[in-house]
Specification:
The chain has 397 residues and is α/β, with parallel strands linked by helices. It folds into two domains: 2-73 and 226-394, Alkaline Phosphatase, subunit A (3-Layer(aba) Sandwich), CATH 3.40.720.10; 80-221, no CATH class. Helix content is 35%, strand content 19%. The strands form two sheets. It has an eight-stranded mixed β-sheet, sandwiched between helices. Strand 5 and strand 6 form a beta hairpin. Helix 5 (75-83) crosses helix 10 (245-253). The longest helix has 19 residues, at 305-323.
Length: 397
């Protein structure tokens, strides 16, 4: 028996009054997911522990079977592991977004979804000009990067706001605040003149694209606890594919084979076919493959109903359709979002999410579609969500 986990990042959400109070999952055309739902086992899972930030880091940690209460210490440290950033005992890390602030408002949390190539040139300049024995900047993927700070653990006490939480809002009230914040604010302020006339931004303006006007520091993290390997914990060899450093970092930390598949991105241009084929090929040597797809979450952050529906439909057609071609006695599939990203608020929310398990050992429990309401109607609730992996692999329900 082989296993596949499909994480549809941020795919769930809230009813939309302007669309007959349906969610994006309900609005999307998903024949393959719905067929699986009718023959599969559905329910809800609480992936974000009560009181914890509703982010993809603790949520995805839950999905792959690890308790965030035990292992989560901040997102940037996980991403630093993925990027190969060397960390000493007194180092702290921060996520460093490239953002666009216009007229004092957060015009884009992703600098108009700047490309990795463009962003790498900007981060190099920032590191050349602002880097020191104390501070260093490391390029990541697209708008997401890492800032490492030595000997200033007080910066972890600063109250920082993710830029995707404040789209179109005045940024002044959301700058880092409290103890340790002055150092972070100073770095952000000093980045502005460096970016203003950067050749990359000049080219973007000429092309009618948003420029990156500043760095934005948040999601501070200290050292991440060591996590037991997935193979030791669940008895299976596993692989993982994702277009974002966070999931690659998590996979690295639990000893999964992190797949390098051309065309895998965090956006609608993701090559879904290449991603699922690469994951399935990895099952020749592994027992379980995790397919993480970021696009629904990105579209939720943008507040685009149509684009979020499109991302869900692409997953249904190109990923779920391919997996459904396997025999249920050869492959078991777990499909779920990690957290909701409601269109209304354009950010994450800590509510339970629907899950669907399809395979030989699981009997149907009455669902007709893969939606929040259908999953909730089963009466099945897995809490904490990290228990779901054990249920999935060993049918311990």
């Amino acid at each position: 028996m082989k296993f596949c986990v499909v994480i549809m990042d941020g795919a769930s959400g809230w009813p939309l009054p302007e669309r007959d109070n349906k969610t994006c999952l309900e609005l999307a055309n998903t024949p393959n997911l719905d067929n699986m739902a009718r023959s599969g086992y559905m329910g809800m899972a609480l992936t974000i522990p009560p009181g914890m930030e509703p982010g993809s880091a603790p949520a995805c940690m839950s999905v792959i079977g690890y308790d965030p209460v035990v292992y989560y210490r901040g997102r940037s440290g996980i991403e630093a592991r993925s990027a190969g950033v060397p960390l000493g005992p007194d180092d702290v890390t921060f996520r460093c977004n490239l953002v666009t602030v216009l007229d004092g408002r957060m015009a884009s949390y992703s600098a108009g979804h700047i490309t990795t190539e463009e962003a790498t040139g900007i981060i190099k300049t920032v590191n050349d000009k602002l880097g020191s024995e104390t501070v260093a900047f490391f390029p990541g993927v697209n708008y997401r990067h890492i800032c490492r700070i030595k000997g200033k653990e007080e910066t972890l006490k600063a109250v920082c706001t993710p830029p995707h939480d404040i789209t179109d809002q005045p940024v002044a009230r959301y700058l880092p605040q409290g103890e340790g914040s002055e150092f972070l604010c100073d770095l952000m302020k000093k980045s502005e003149p460096l970016l203003e006339n950067h050749p990359v931004n000049a080219a973007r303006r000429k092309a009618g694209k948003l420029p990156a006007t500043s760095i934005w520091l948040f999601w501070g993290s200290g050292r991440i606890p060591e996590m037991p390997s997935f193979e030791k914990t669940y008895g299976l060899k596993a692989s993982l594919t994702s277009g974002v450093d966070l999931l690659r970092g998590l996979g690295t930390m639990v000893g999964m084979q992190v797949l390098q598949i051309a065309g895998v991105t965090d956006n609608l241009d993701n090559d879904y076919t290449a991603q699922v084929e690469g994951a399935l090929k990895s099952l020749e040597k592994n027992d379980l493959a995790v397919i993480h797809i970021e696009a629904p979450d990105e579209m939720g952050h943008r507040g685009s109903i149509e684009d979020k529906m499109k991302a869900i439909e692409q997953i249904d057609e190109k990923v779920i359709g391919r997996l459904a071609g396997w025999k249920a006695d050869e492959l078991s599939v777990l499909v779920m979002p990690d957290h909701p990203t409601p269109i209304k608020i354009k950010t994450h929310y800590g509510e339970p999410v629907p899950f669907l398990i399809w395979g030989r050992k699981f009997k149907a429990n009455g669902s007709r579609r893969f939606t929040e309401s259908e999953a909730g109607g089963t009466g099945v609730m897995v809490e904490p969500g990290c228990r779901l992996m054990e249920l999935f692999i060993h049918n311990k329900n």
